[in-house]
Amino acid sequence: MKKLIMVVTAALLVFTAACSKESNTNTNKTESGANAGGEQTKPRVAFVYLGVPGDGGWTYEHDQGRKMMEEELGITATTVENVPEGADAERVFEELAEKNDIIFGTSFGYMDAMVAVAQKHPNVKFLHASGYKTSDNLGTYLGKEYQSAYLVGMAAGKMTKNNHLGYVGAYPIPEVIYTINAFTLGVQSVNPEAKVDVVWSNTWFDPTAERQAATSLLDKGVDVLAAYQDSPASIQAAAERGVWGIGNDSDMSKYAPDYYISNPKWNWGPYYVQTVKAIMDGTWKTESYFGSMKDGITDIAPFGKNVPQDVKDLVEAKKKEILEGTFDVFNGPIADQTGTEKVPQGKAMTVDDILNMNWFVKGIEGTIPQ
C-alpha cells in the first residue's frame, strides 16, 4: 500500500502542479457515454504521482501503464507529479475533480484525501492504488506482488553462500510486510538454513537514506540484498561490495548489471485500459481489485546476466505452478518468528488475512515497528 509521507515545500507542490501536463484542451468535464451524434465521448482522466517517472521504479511503471491506456483508448491524460502525501494532496485531488471524470491516485498515503474528495464529487470516479477504503465512486487496486517476491526469493536462496540475506523495508505496512514474508518463504523453500535480516528506511524514494540502510546490512555481512524502495540505491551499494542485489517495482538491472538477480515487476497498463474502458461503457462498479501474476499485473524482471541457468530453470518451474494455480505462496504450515503456527498444514491465508498481515515469518531477523 503505497505511499506514506514525503516532505516537500508548498512552493514546490504549487510549481509542480502548475508544470504538470494538462492534456485535454476541452475545459468542460464530460460524462462517459454517447453524444448527440451517437459517438462515445472520451472521459477526462488524471493521474497523481508521488514522485516522477524518472524514479525508474514505482512511478515509472504507473506512467508506462498510463501511456498504454492513452494509446489503446485514444485518451490523453493529465499527470501531476511530486505530490506529497498529506494535507496538500487533498487540494490537488480537489482541483483535479473539478475538471476530470476519472482520477487515479498512485500512492498509499493519498487514501484519506481521496476519500474526502470522492465524497464531495459523486460523479467522478476515483481509483486508489494500494488503499483499502472504498465507496460508490472510489475503488482500490493492487496486485499479488508477493507471488513475484516468492520467486525472486527462491533465486536469492540459491545464490547466497553464507545463508545471510538482507532486506531493506520501506514502511512497516502490510504490503511491505507480506512481500518480505513471501520473499523469505521463497528463500527457505530452497535453503531452509538461510536467514533474512530486515531493516527499515522509512522512505519510498530517498537514495541517501536507502543507501545508508543498505550499508548497515552490508556491514553485517549479507551476501544477497533486496529492497522495497523506488530507487536503486540499495542494489548499487550492494554491487559496490560485490554483493548480489534485488530491486523493486521495475527492471533495475541497468543499475547493477554484474550483481543483479531480478526483482518483482509491475505491469499496470492492462488494468488502466480495462478500468477506463469499463467506465466509458457504463459497466464499472467499485471494487477492491487484487490482481494476480496470471492476470499479468505483476511478474519478475528478466534475470541478471550472471544468474546461473539452473537457478532460472528452478524459478521458471515454480512460476508455471503459480500461473496454473497449483501453488499458493501462503499455504500452510507457516510459523511466525517465535515459532508459533500461524497457518496450519493444508490451509491457506485468505486475501483479507494477507492484506492485514502484521507479523514476520520464521527465519526473519528484525522487528516490525509499532
Topology readout:
Blueprint: H1 10-19, E1 33-34, E2 40-41, E3 45-48, H2 58-73, E4 78-80, H3 87-97, E5 102-105, H4 111-120, E6 125-129, E7 138-143, H5 145-159, E8 164-169, H6 174-190, E9 195-200, H7 207-218, E10 224-227, H8 233-240, E11 244-246, E12 264-266, H9 269-281, E13 288-291, E14 298-300, H10 309-324, E15 334-335, E16 341-343, H11 351-355, E17 364-365
Parallel strand pairs: 3-4, 3-5, 5-6, 6-7, 7-13, 8-9, 8-10, 9-17, 10-11
Antiparallel strand pairs: 1-2, 12-14, 15-16
Helix pairs in contact: 2-9, 3-4, 5-6, 5-10, 7-8
Task: Explain this structure.
There is one protein chain. The protein has a six-stranded parallel β-sheet. It has a five-stranded parallel β-sheet with strand order 11-10-8-9-17, sandwiched between helices. It has a two-stranded antiparallel sheet with strand order 1-2. The chain starts with 9 loop residues before the first helix and ends in a 5-residue tail after the last strand. Helix 2 crosses helix 9 and helix 7 packs across helix 8. The N terminus is likely disordered. It has eleven helices and 17 strands. The chain is globular and about 60 Å long. It is 36% helix and 17% strand. The protein has two domains: 159 residues, Rossmann fold; 184 residues, Response regulator (Rossmann fold, 3-Layer(aba) Sandwich), CATH 3.40.50. Strand 1 and strand 2 form a beta hairpin.
